[in-house]
Write a structure and sequence with these properties.
This protein is mainly β and 103 residues long. The chain has one helix at 87-95, and strands spanning 7-17, 25-36, 41-45, 49-53, 58-64, 68-73, 78-83.
């Protein structure tokens, strides 16, 4: 998909262990950024660091409550939750690049 540009969106982030509860990092809007294109999704926040998602490591993208998406990848023991003001629009924008989120 040469020449296809992605999009960038600000939001909040929460990083939680895959098991055990609690959280490692959390920040509200607009401290986190999600960038997506047909090849990858990148989640970045100053305290949490960066999570790079590709088709090879993606396990699932799930709706989280009414305002966010939870990202699970095979090479990270944490779940990254990105929230935004319009999660349905985010789901649609990701779908336009071939990323499927459970509604």
């Amino acid at each position: 998909m040469a020449g296809v540009e992605g999009f960038s969106l600000r939001g909040g982030i929460r990083v939680v262990p895959g098991v055990g509860g609690g959280f490692r990092a959390e920040s509200g809007w607009p401290m986190a950024r999600l960038r997506a294109d047909p090849n990858s999704i990148t989640l970045r926040e100053i305290w949490a660091g960066t999570l790079m998602i590709t088709a090879d490591n993606l396990v699932a993208i799930r709706r989280w409550r009414s305002a966010g998406l939870e990202f699970e990848v095979s090479d990270c023991d944490e779940l990254w939750i990105f929230w935004t003001r319009d999660v349905d629009r985010l789901i649609d924008r990701l779908a336009a690049f071939g990323w499927t989120a459970e509604r």
